Amino acid sequence: MATVNSVADATRAAVDPVDPESAEWLSALAGRGSQREAALARLHEMLLRIAQRECRRRSPRQRITGPELEDLADQAAADALVAIIRKLGQFRGESRFTTWACKFVILEVSDKIGRHFWQNPGVPLDAEDWDRLPDRFGFEPAREAEWRDLLAALRRAVDTELTARQREVFVAIVVYAVPLDALAIELGSNRNAIYKMMFDARRKLRAALAANGYMSHDTTGRS
Amino acid sequence: MNGYSALDRFLRTDPRDVGCAQAIEMLHVYAELVAAGEPAEQHYPGIAAHLQACGPCGEDFAGLLAALRDETP
After folding, report:
1. What interface predicted TM-score (ipTM) does this complex get?
2. Using the 8-state DSSP alphabet, how is residue A138 labeled?
3. Contacts with B, A 93-152, CB within 8 Å
């Protein structure tokens, strides 16, 4: 996929000196016996605390509450701990160890919320309902005369410019508001691949709308 | 037409955007810079562009940043 920049930003040195606190974590977790057990317990405690706060932070936008949300936090913390221990050798000291570890539990919360979506999707996905589209972008029904042609052109571009897979992803995410992570799980894909597919689709659709005079050309290429 | 600007923003793509995999790979470094008040977007413009455009990665970044702030004594 050539459209998403494949060149990474300049990164810091491949291996930074590890700060004393991180070194202490690494030593304890790589060790044996009671010292390791204590470090694992302390790490799990931190992960669980973060998972619980993160679940609460996201809960207003999710259909998950109460014990289900607590279970999700428990699972995220447990799975993050396993992943951290498995990848301990990959820690390069670019950040504090605890920041690196925090990332794992945040990503686990995302993953579990994505999986939970399909327990109750809230919308039937078997028949396309393009009438949802105006509302998705905040077009006002009272001013339909102003946007009717634009959205008709967008729909034509979706049908004619996108590949079947891009169209499927676009309809799920844009028309039905399926979360990207949930869609990635449903399609047996991953966040990066679905995002790149949408990136290409957005670029194609904008070009088509610009070519037909509905939008300006994106001369800067930047948002 | 309120929806026009929302659609316009949605369809714009930034060539600096590094995608989810690279953004997540460096998210802990980026978040630590932001938490420290450093100009993370100057160090990592491709990650900054991605986090602006990608809802899930932006949400993960917000969560990580909140965690860093909550956990810092």
Report:
1. 0.93
2. T
3. 94-96, 98-100, 102-103, 105-107, 109-110, 134, 137-140, 143, 146-147, 150
